[in-house]
Amino acid sequence: MAKQSASTRLSSDASEIRAAVFRLSRRLRQQRAVSDMTDGQFAVLVALTVHGPHTLSALADREGITAPSMNRTVNGLEELGHLTRRENDVDRRKVSIDITESGRAIVEETVRRRDEWLAKVLAGLDADDRVTMRRAAEIIMREIER
Question: Which of 84, 75, 11 shows the shortest CA–CA distance to 41?
Answer without folding.
Answer: 75
